[in-house]
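Exercise 4. Each item below gives a protein and its sequence. For each, produce the structure-token representation.

Item: HAD-IIA family hydrolase (Microbacterium gilvum).
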Amino acid sequence: MTDMDGVLVHEERPIPGASELLAQWRDTGTPFLVLTNNSIFTPRDLSARLRASGIEVPEENIWTSALATAAFLKQQSPGGSAFVIGEAGILTAMHEAGFIMTETDPDYVVIGETRNYSFEALTKAVRLINNGARFISTNPDATGPSAQGVLPATGAINALITKATGKEPYIVGKPNPMMFRSALNRIGAHSENTGMIGDRMDTDIVAGIEAGLHTVLVMTGISSRASIEQYPFRPDEIVSSVAELLSPAVEGEGGGELAAGV
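Answer:
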């Protein structure tokens, strides 16, 4: 399993070695999923976005926090209702899971990623939660990357709503190991022979550790060598980029253990 932003691509640009590693997994028949906390886009959108960057990932090989959230809520309340703040990724996933979108007495308020948070929608979310709707969020990422620097993300909006309501959200995406377990089930894999490649210590790595996966931190995303020291846990491996994970036949030197299916 691998994260997307910061591991395979960075602001629409492919990270060296990413396309080759995915091709190596396909050639060796190694099952894989691209996991992302990004709930803005549907898997089809993300597949097209990756293809435009020169990276081929079929939509069935993409598992998002939106899909994980919708699957969890479908299990909790089949045919339920929700007020959702977000984009096509979470809205489509919730519709496909059989949920009714409503602003009147919903079972859940679901917060996803968007670049267009409105004060009106946030006010409505706060009032609905105060009136008894259960508070759900796709992910806890406080910031996201952009070409101009960091952007406030879902976690920052979660904090705003928590401050206004006094209620914490249940977060389904990384670092909740539930997202990893649902992803493992999707490809019929077992934690003992599955690895997780990510760029964030606070989501990818800690969730991978808690799910019993072999964890690999890359330095092409949000983490730095100095930031690793802020955490009491460590990944199994730290590499400069996914290029270091290519097998000798592809790369010409070491680093093939994870690509072989660890």
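Check: The mean pLDDT is 91.
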